[in-house]
C-alpha cells in the first residue's frame, strides 16, 4: 500500500498534505512546478532524439552501397562510445529496465537531490545515444524514469515531505507520458497503473490528472497541436465479423506476439551474454545497422521501418498506405522490428517497448484484416484492425489495459472504442490465465521452459537437456 493511500482513511502524513486550503494551494503549485519541469525536459529530449536520428538516417540514403556501410559504421561507433560509458558503475543503471527501476525507486525512501539529478542527466544522455544513435525502441520507458527522478529532485529542492515527494513522482511520470503521447488522461492512468498495479489510487490519480493537463498545455503551447496518429473516420456501429476479428486479434495475435517479442529479447540477451560486456553495444548496433542495410537492399524498406520508435511505420499502416499493400509485408516488418528492439535492449540500450509494441500490434492487426479479406470470409478494414492491434498489444506486452483503452479513445476517437475495448478485455483475461508477464518463470509454462532450454543451449550449458 502506498504511503499516500490507506484502506479507509488518510494516513497522518498524508492528512497534512490536505489539512487546510493553504496546504492544498501549496501542493497545487508544487504539482504544477513538477509538471512544467518534467514537460520541458521530456520535450527537449524528444526533439534532440528526433534530430539526431534524422541526421543519422540521412547517412544511409542513396543507391550506392557505401551509404549503407557508412550508416552501419556510424551506428557501431556511437554504440562503442555508449559501451565505454556502461563500463562505469555509476552508468550501468541506464541499461536496466527503466519501468522496473522506476517502481523500485518510487517505493523506496526518496533519493537525494544529487542522485535524482544524476539519474535525469545520465538517463537522458544514454537515451540520446541509444535512440539518436540508431537504436530501435520507444522513449516512454526512459522518460518514465526521468519524470520520476525529476519529480524527486523537485521535492528535495523544495524540501517537501516524504508523502509529498511520493505524490510528485506519480505526477512526474504522468507529465512525462502526457508530453510524449499528447494524451493527458492516458498519461495519468498510465502513471497510476504503472506504479500501483491493479489498484486505482484515486487520490494520486486526481493530482496526476492535474500534472498531465499542465504538461499537455505547455507542450501544445510550445509545439502546437500535432496528433500522435490519425486514422480514417469510422462509424460507431460494428458488424459481428468485425467484433469477431477483434476477439481474434486479442487471442490469436496479441498474446503470441507478446510471447514472441519477449522470447526474441531473451534469446538475444542470452546470445549477447557470451560476448564481452564492453562490446555489447557496438556489436548489437553493428548487427542492427547490417539488418537495416540488408532490408533496404533486398526489399527496398526504408531505415525508419527498423530504426527508431516505429511511429512513421504505424502512420503508414493506419492510412493503409500503398507501400505496405503486400499481405506478407507486415509479417516481415514485425520480425524485423522485434529483432531490432531485441538487439537494442540486449546491447544495454536505453529504450522502451511501448511504442514498439504499438507498432507490432498495428502491423499484426492490419495483417489479420488483410488475411481474412483475402480468404473471402469477410471484408475487414486494415486501419480499424491496426487500432485494435495497438490496444491489444499494449495490454499483452506492457500490461496496461486501462491506459490502452483510454489511448484509443483519446487519440483515435470514441468510434474506435468498442472493438478495441473488447480486444483489450480478452487479451488481459487470457494473459492472467497464462501468467504472461506475472509469472514468466512458471514451471508449467511451456514457452518459458523452451526459452530456458534455448538459453542453456546458446551458453553451451553442460546440464542442458539432450
Give your account of this protein's structure.
By secondary structure, the protein is an all-alpha fold. The protein has two domains: 12-223, Clc chloride channel; 240-458, Clc chloride channel (Orthogonal Bundle), CATH 1.10.3080.10. Helices cover 71% and strands 0% of the residues. It is globular. The protein starts with 11 loop residues before the first helix and ends in an 8-residue tail after the last helix.
What is the element layout, followed by pairings?
Elements: H1 12-17, H2 21-59, H3 65-86, H4 98-107, H5 113-131, H6 140-157, H7 162-181, H8 184-196, H9 202-223, H10 240-272, H11 280-299, H12 311-318, H13 329-346, H14 354-375, H15 382-398, H16 401-412, H17 417-434, H18 446-458
Brief write-up:
71% of the residues lie in helices and 0% in strands. With 466 residues, it is mainly alpha-helical. The protein is globular, with a radius of gyration of 22 Å.
